């Protein structure tokens, strides 16, 4: 009997242990649920109404992703038509095709351009908006959104930290602008980009100068080089030299040693002596180069003039100028924003809608950026939740239930080293660049540009707006500490 008792004792002990564990689990408090289930959130995707805008904020592929997560996606009828996305494509992906009013009256609205005042009236009170906003340049728009107690996120305000690279729509659009700038230049240039030796004679390669080493500038360098041109680039930041040379291009310098870097990776305005040497360099290059592409912008201000009339007067007949800062007045003195003109037998391309000229690609990339930003703001699995301790949330939020939350306080740390020179010099006109320390940042560093006003009818010359009219040519307003910085598209 003792043997039997001894045999069953471990079994009874195991049962008692199981019962104790079960009681402890039953007595434990349920885990806290953070956020709202995706299945209870309705998303709205309205058509863009900005003049010449062909992009859309959400692609059918992203619609399928969001519906799979549990969101209800409501797309305005015809919203993707100009980007070659059909209504039936959205429907097949699980989206609902709705009216304009319905698209604007959802829990969360996904847009590309900031809404006009008329569109603000259609947004639901206490709803959420994801869009380019440029709060520093559009105070009346922000005030109107705040009056509806809305929560608003600026795609132009996403902080420049490693984790946020995948949300960086400005860089996505800047990449497209730089590529398209070279394509447009080649269309108006009367010769091959690449050199050739044929039975009919020798054809020299085209010489291309790119001013500015931000995302758009580096994309232009890469595209021009891939087409066989001799490519040169200039930037005030020495860190850009390695990236330019890694693509096989020549990095130009001036004799004066001066670092244009600032905290956060932007570039400062340079000294008078540096600018004079820079102007001489540009003049010499204009005489020699066939194509010049400029990308320099100053946040919240008119773009600096880098290529002056006397430089254009000395260019070879048939040369081409492309100004990615045309929406902010332009870097080229003889440019006409929004148009292609000819002066002194030199073609001037002042388009302000370069990303929108590749609407399918631009919409696809922007859709990826905005959806990943949305999905990153989560609490419990498959729940939408705003964690105000998250740098991405703090940096990109402009309004929190109607209360102004921009710029982030305290500021988001970017990890960039402080420049040796201290404060920026008072002289203006030097170009600036997005920061980056690796080649990867070509696709992910911040592109700043002028922002649009809330009215789609405002002429480009009257306001700073998000350049993809051309986005890359857009300038984001920086906190006061950075107001003297320059940036490149």
Description:
This protein is of the alpha/beta class and 489 residues long. It has a domain at 36-168 and 358-404: 3-Layer(aba) Sandwich (Rossmann fold). It is 31% helix and 15% strand. It contains 15 helices and 21 strands. It has helices at 2-27, 60-69, 87-92, 100-104, 117-122, 139-146, 169-188, 215-226, 240-246, 272-288, 309-313, 359-376, 391-396, 441-444, 467-470, and strands spanning 36-37, 42-45, 72-76, 96-98, 108-110, 128-131, 151-154, 196-198, 201-203, 207-211, 230-234, 250-252, 291-294, 296-297, 320-323, 340-343, 346-349, 383-384, 397-400, 403-404, 487-488. It has an 8-stranded mixed β-sheet with strand order 4-3-2-5-6-7-19-20, with helices on both faces. Strand 6, helix 6 and strand 7 (151-154) form a beta-alpha-beta unit. Helix 7 (169-188) crosses helix 8. The longest helix is centred in the first third of the chain and has 26 residues, at 2-27. The protein starts with a helix and ends with a strand.
Question: Keyphrases for this structure?
Answer:
15 helices; 8-stranded mixed β-sheet; 21 strands; 489 residues
Give a nutshell description of this structure.
The protein has 489 residues and is an alpha/beta fold. The protein has helices at residues 2-27, 60-69, 87-92, 100-104, 117-122, 139-146, 169-188, 215-226, 240-246, 272-288, 309-313, 359-376, 391-396, 441-444, 467-470; strands spanning 36-37, 42-45, 72-76, 96-98, 108-110, 128-131, 151-154, 196-198, 201-203, 207-211, 230-234, 250-252, 291-294, 296-297, 320-323, 340-343, 346-349, 383-384, 397-400, 403-404, 487-488.
């Amino acid at each position: 009997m003792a043997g039997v008792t001894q045999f069953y004792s471990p079994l009874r002990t195991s049962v008692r242990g199981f019962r104790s564990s079960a009681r402890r689990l039953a007595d434990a408090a349920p885990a806290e649920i953070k956020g709202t289930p995706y299945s209870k959130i309705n998303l709205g995707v309205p058509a863009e109404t900005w003049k010449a805008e062909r992009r859309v904020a959400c692609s059918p592929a992203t619609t399928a992703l969001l519906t799979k997560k549990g969101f209800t996606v409501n797309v305005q009828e015809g919203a993707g038509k100009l980007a070659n996305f059909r209504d039936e494509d959205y429907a097949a992906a699980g989206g609902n095709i709705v009216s304009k009013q319905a698209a604007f009256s959802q829990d969360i609205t996904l847009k590309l351009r900031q809404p006009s005042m008329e569109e603000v009236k259609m947004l639901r009170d206490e709803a959420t908006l994801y869009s380019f906003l440029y709060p520093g340049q559009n105070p009346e728009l922000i005030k109107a959104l705040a009056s509806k107690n809305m929560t608003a996120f600026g795609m132009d305000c996403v902080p420049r930290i490693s984790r946020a690279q995948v949300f960086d729509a400005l860089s996505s659009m800047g990449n497209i602008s730089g590529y398209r700038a070279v394509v447009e230049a080649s269309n108006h240039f009367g010769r091959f980009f690449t050199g050739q030796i044929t039975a009919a004679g020798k054809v020299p390669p085209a010489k291309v100068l790119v001013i500015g080493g931000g995302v758009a500038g580096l994309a232009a360098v890469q595209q021009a080089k891939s087409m066989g041109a001799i490519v040169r680039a200039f930037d005030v930041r020495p860190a850009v030299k390695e990236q330019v040379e890694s693509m096989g291009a020549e990095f130009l310098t001036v004799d004066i040693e001066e670092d244009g870097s600032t905290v956060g990776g932007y570039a400062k305005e340079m000294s008078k002596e540096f600018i004079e040497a820079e102007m001489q360099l540009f003049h010499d290059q204009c005489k020699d180069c066939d194509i010049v592409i400029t990308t320099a912008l100053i946040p919240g201000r008119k773009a600096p003039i880098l290529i002056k009339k006397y430089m254009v007067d000395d260019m070879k007949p048939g040369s081409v100028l492309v100004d990615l800062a045309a929406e902010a007045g332009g870097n080229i003195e003889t440019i006409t924003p929004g148009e292609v003109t000819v002066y002194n037998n030199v073609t001037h391309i002042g388009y302000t809608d370069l990303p929108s000229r590749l609407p399918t690609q631009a919409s696809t990339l922007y859709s990826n950026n905005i959806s990943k930003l949305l999905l990153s703001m989560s609490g419990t699995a498959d729940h939408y939740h705003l964690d105000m301790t998250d740098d991405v949330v703090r940096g990109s939020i402009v309004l929190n239930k109607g209360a102004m939350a921009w710029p982030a306080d305290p500021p988001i740390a970017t990890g960039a080293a402080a420049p040796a020179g201290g404060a920026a010099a008072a002289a203006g006109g030097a170009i600036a660049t997005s920061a980056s320390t690796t080649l990867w940042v070509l696709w992910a560093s911040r592109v700043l540009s002028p922002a649009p006003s809330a009215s789609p009818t405002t002429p480009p010359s009257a306001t700073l707006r998000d350049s993809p009219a051309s986005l890359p040519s857009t300038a984001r307003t920086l906190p006061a500490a950075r107001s003297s910085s320059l940036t490149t598209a």
